[in-house]
């Protein structure tokens, strides 16, 4: 009977050791997974020379588009009275009033509707 108790105790100790090994393996796996996430993020955020030239091309296109739009807006004629009316009634500065009028083709009614909505 004493021999059976020793066997039971040995089995219990072995299962306890196995459980501790499993816990350690889980911790190791979790750490490895975290490290993998960090290295994946670092790889994704690295910028190559080709990426930079592509981005610069896009930025150049955006700047050219903005300049073309500004040039078109400057061609639109606005009346000084309309600008003053917007400044007085809507309490906005003169530059904003003039730009809004230009964006709406100099049409006072369209500008008023857009600014009040």
From TrEMBL:
Keyword entries, A-Z: Coiled coil
Coiled-coil portions: 80-107
Basic and acidic residues compositional bias, start-end: 18-29
Boundaries of every Nascent polypeptide-associated complex subunit alpha-like UBA domain copy: 76-116
Sequence segments annotated as region (Disordered): 1-29
CDD domains the record matches: UBA_HYPK (cd14361)
Coiled coil listed as a keyword: yes
Any GO BP: negative regulation of apoptotic process
Name of the protein described by the UniProt record: Nascent polypeptide-associated complex subunit alpha-like UBA domain-containing protein
Originating species: Allacma fusca
């Amino acid at each position: 009977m004493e021999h059976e108790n020793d066997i039971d105790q040995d089995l219990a100790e072995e299962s306890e050791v196995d459980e501790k090994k499993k816990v350690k393996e889980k911790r190791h796996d979790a750490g490895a997974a975290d490290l993998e996430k960090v290295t994946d993020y670092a790889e994704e955020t690295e910028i190559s020379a080709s990426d930079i030239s592509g981005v610069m091309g896009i930025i150049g296109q955006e700047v050219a588009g903005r300049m073309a739009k500004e040039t078109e807006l400057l061609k639109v004629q606005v009346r000084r009275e309309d600008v003053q009316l917007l400044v007085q009634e809507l309490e906005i500065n003169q530059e904003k009033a003039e730009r809004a009028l230009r964006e709406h083709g100099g049409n006072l009614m369209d500008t008023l509707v857009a600014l009040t909505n």
